[in-house]
Every structure is written in structure tokens, then in C-alpha cells.
Request: fold
Amino acid sequence: MASLTDKLKELGVQVGTSQLKTPATNHHSTRSLIDVLPGSWESTSGGDCFVVRKTIPFHTKHGLRNLKGLPSMEFFEALDHLKGISAATPEEFLFIDTETTGLSGGAGTYVFLVGAAKYEKDSLNFAQFFLQDPQSESAQLSALERYVADAKVIVSYNGKSFDLPRIKSRYRFHGWPNPFENIYHIDLLHIARRLWKPHLPGCTLGDLEEHIIGLQRDNLDIPGWQISEFFYEYMQSGDPSPLENIFYHNEVDVISLAALLEYIADRLSIPLSKEFKNEPDLVSIGNYFYSLHLFSEAQAILTTALSNPDLSGAILLKGKLSLAAIHKRRANYDLAVPIWKECAELGSFDALIELAKYAEHKLFDFEEALHWTLSAYDSLHIFPPSKRAAVISLLDHRLRRLKIKVKR
Reply:
């Protein structure tokens, strides 16, 4: 199957370079941007920019979710890089997603469409800023800068690695100040991976739309990998028809960010709500709280989560180990040890080592510690070959020490 790059080369396109041309005039099409898209030309200090604006009222259905406005940010305060975020007002939140001419970045990669939304009193104020041709970039950046002027919090999906670096590079290319400096950034991809990767390994925004938000996109949508191809089709023909698909895709992405933030905030603010408590991702939520050193909350969540009889495999094992670790931190070994033994029966290397440590350092029962250490050798297959030698070295060291203690 031909790659996207190959397809674009067949169209005569140099992807990700500065050879982006002004759209051709199509003598067979009299359609303009305004004929295809519900936008208008707006004047800026950098020229005229084509902008699509929409108002999306709260309670609008997005999949199975009703947009309702900024949720409680209490949980996000627990993240070091987001401390103080609760002081931001709803109007200071900005959801953002971009479409670009290539994935490589650099001065020749244009951000041809920026979709953004921010909360108003009872709605989402949604806007899309379109780069019709390279000569219009000053206008696009000026319009975007004006729109984001009051933002103190950015919400994106993989925006830390993709969207924001691309936008920043365009402002830097023009020698302009970056309007996104010194601003909180909630990249929902990183949180989504902590919560749903065990069930949704890809953790794409599309995965979350389908399985978490319950959204099915309509026939206007196109896969992300086709967006550059559709854009270059417009650039070559001058016919704006393909842009309708791109603008739809971008709009749904941005609204999904709002729906997803609202869902995640609700889920993490009240994790034991009756609405959620039997869901399998409760274990991941408990593990997430544990990683943030919110041990009391993690214990309550994991205790409830592990009562679900449908849990099994790696998810069950990880939840049990986290709960046992909390008990260990509190020196509640009468609660931790039975859990470790359950995990050891499931072949957990970590549980076997914890039992060996407990026997050696708390019970001073060196023969039992030796038993658990020898059992751990049987679990070495779980480690990739590149790490196995280091683990064996640590086990050998423990084994030698215990053999000496047993002989005393």
C-alpha cells in the first residue's frame, strides 16, 4: 500500500516544505470558501483571515455526553504542573487542535487549520482559523492570537508533542512572541493512557470517542492520515469541496476535547460514584491515584475495584499489587502479605520479591525468604531478554546473602 508521502508526491506535492503554493484557479468550479463553509473573512493586523465561528450551547449531545461547561478542577490540582489551575475561570480555558501540511515539523510545515473553543456563559465558543495560502499566514496567526489572548489553560490531545510545537514554530518563524507561553497545559493523551491503556492500547482520540464518549462520526469524516491529501487536492484544484471534510474532522476533534475533559474530571473527582464503580477502569484510576501519592483515596478506590468478580489478568494483578503497596507503606503487613501470596500464585515476580523481603527483614525467617527467592527465578520469563541479565544479577545477590544467613 502506498504511503501518504508517496500519494502526495504523485500529486506533485513536496510534503512539509516551504513549496506550498497558492490554490490554483479551477475554471470548472465557481465555488468559493463561503459556498462550502459557514465562515467569513475577518480583518486582522496581518490581513484578512477566513474564520468559521459557531456557538455550541451547553446540553448539546456529543455522543452519550451532554456538554455542560467547566467541571471541577479539584483532581488536576494534584498534578505538579497544574497546581493553581483551579483559579482559572471557565472563560480562560482553551481547547485546541490543528491540521498541518506534514508531520515532520520545521519551518516548512504549515498549520493550515487551527480549531479552538472556549467556554462562555452557557455555551462553547468555537472557531476555526484557516490558512488559504502561505501569504495569508500573518493574518491567520493574528486572528488566532486575538482569540487566545485571555487563555490561561490549554486542553489538547497530544498537543504537547504535536500541536503546540507546530504553532509555536510558526510564530517563531515570523519573529513574533508566542501567545502560548507561561500557560497551563492539560494534554488529555497522557491522562487517557493512565486510565484506559489496559483496555484501549492505542488510546487514540477516536478510540476514546467510540468507547468512552460513545460518539460515532458521520460520513463527512475522514481519517487523520488523509487530511493532508485532501488539503493538497484543494491547493491543486482550487475547488474547496474537500475542505468540508477537513473542517468537520477538526470540529469534532475540538468538541471531543471538551466532552472528554468533562468526563475525566467527573470520573476522577467522584471515582466511587454509583454511576462508575463497577467499571473495569476503576483499577486504573486507583493506580493513578497511587502514583500521585493520594494513598487514602487510592486504597478506597482499589478496595472497591478489586471486589469486581469480572476482573482478571494483568489489570487484576496490578490493582492487587498497588493495594498491597499501600498497606506496606502503613506497615499493615497482616493485610499486605495475603495479597502478595495471591499475586505470587498468579506468577507475580514483584509479589515474590516482596514476600522474600518481608520474611527476611520482618520475620527474620531466612529459610522462608530463601523459598520465595528461589520461586522468583521461575518468573524470569516475564522480563525481556535485554533486562533479564540485570534481574538475575540482583536475584543471585539476594540468594547468596540468604544462603549465608541460613547457615549461621
Summary: The first helix runs from residue 4 to 10.
